[in-house]
Amino acid sequence: MRKRSLVVIVVVVGFFVGFGSGLVEIEPGYYGFPLAWRVVDTVTGDRFALWLELFVDCLFGMLMVGMVAVAAAVTEKWVGKKGKPTKRK
C-alpha cells in the first residue's frame, strides 16, 4: 500500500473515531473521549458542542489509528522477510 493512501485512510478513520467518541458518556450529560466535547444539560435539554475539544479528540483518534497502521506495516514487513525461502547449495 502506498504511503499517501495510508495517510488518507488514517486521517479519515481517525476523524470518524473522534466523532464516534461523542457516543461515550464520561459523566451524566458529558460525552466524548478523552475530552468531553458534547454536553447535554439534563435539566433544560440544551446541547452544546465544544469545538476545540472535538478537534483534539479527532487528533487523538488519528494518532491511535496511525499507531495501529504503523504496527501493521512493521509486522507485514517482518513476516514478509521471514516467509521468503532461502537459497540452499
In summary, what is this structure?
The chain is α+β, with helices and mostly antiparallel strands and 89 residues long. Helices cover 57% and strands 12% of the residues.
Please describe what this structure looks like.
The chain has one domain. The chain is built from two helices and four strands. The protein is α+β, with helices and mostly antiparallel strands and 89 residues long. It has a four-stranded antiparallel sheet, with no helix packed on it. It is rod-shaped, with a radius of gyration of 20 Å.
**Which shape, going by the Cα principal axes?**
rod-shaped
Largest sheet: 4 strands, antiparallel
Helix percent reads 55-70%
User: What is the terminal-to-terminal distance?
Assistant: 35 Å
Q: What's the SSE pattern?
A: HEEEEH
Per DSSP, the total helix count is: 2
Strand residue content: 5-15%
State the low-pLDDT regions, or none: none
Report mean pLDDT, rounded to a whole number.
87
User: Which structural category fits the helices and strands?
Assistant: alpha+beta
Overall strand count: 4
Number of domains: 1
Strand numbers in spatial order across the main sheet? 1-2-3-4
How large, in whole angstroms, is the Cα Rg? Answer: 20 Å
